[in-house]
Amino acid sequence: MVEAHFFRRISKRDINSVSVFRGVWPLSYIIGPVVGSVILLYGDYTNLFLITGGFIAVAGVVTTLLIRDFR
User: Fold this and answer.
1) In which band, very low, low, confident or very high, does the pLDDT at 6 lie, cut at 50, 70 and 90?
2) Does residue 45 lie within any of the structural domains?
3) pLDDT band at residue 1, thresholds of 50, 70 and 90?
4) What DSSP letter does each residue of 14-35 carry, written as one string?
5) For 27, which of 11, 16, 17, 36 is 20 to 30 Å away at the CA?
6) What is the tens place of the pLDDT at every residue in 42-55?
7) What number of CA atoms fall less than 13 Å from residue 45's CA on the CB side?
8) Where are the transmembrane segments (predicted)?
């Protein structure tokens, strides 16, 4: 679903956007565990849950508000 929406929104001139889109997923496999480890290093599982849950909630609300129906 994410890729379908992305590729409907771009044109042939957006080659840089495609390369960034393809490179972000593997980068998240590195950043996620590092951030989680740092949170656990200075806190406990409650802090990990609150910080990651808050981040996911805020990111979800922001991205939902930015989606425009293009039909």
Assistant:
1) confident
2) yes
3) low
4) -HHHHHHHHHHHHHHHHHHHHH
5) 11
6) 999 999 999 999 99
7) 0
8) 20-42, 48-67
